[in-house]
Design goal:
single chain; Double Stranded RNA Binding Domain; 2 helices; 124 residues; alpha+beta
Length: 124
Amino acid sequence: MNSTHHTPELIVSGIHLDLTPSLKTYVREKTERLFRHEERIIRVRVELECDPKQSVSNRFTAKGHISINGPDMNASVASDECHKAVSLLVDKLDRMLNRRSKYFKAKRHLAQSIDVDAVIPKMA
């Protein structure tokens, strides 16, 4: 079987937030565990947003978007710290990918009946 191993694209962007190199590496390290579930992930986009007008408990929002073969996956998490929001987001996306992979494995093993409309000749 020919398999092309490509590295999925990771996009990290900040909205009303300056992305430091340490924050970028933190996001990269956290999102590495998402790729163990599915080898067909095309792109992971993480958006980090800081809204000072929100309450302190929901000031930082992390949004994740996974482009994958099939329906794309989206998740959003709000927290009081940026690193905590990233960690919660990756946990949520990890659970979503795990559920998706279990669903496809269960679906693959279901017995399916096939209707054949052809006339079968009788042996003489």
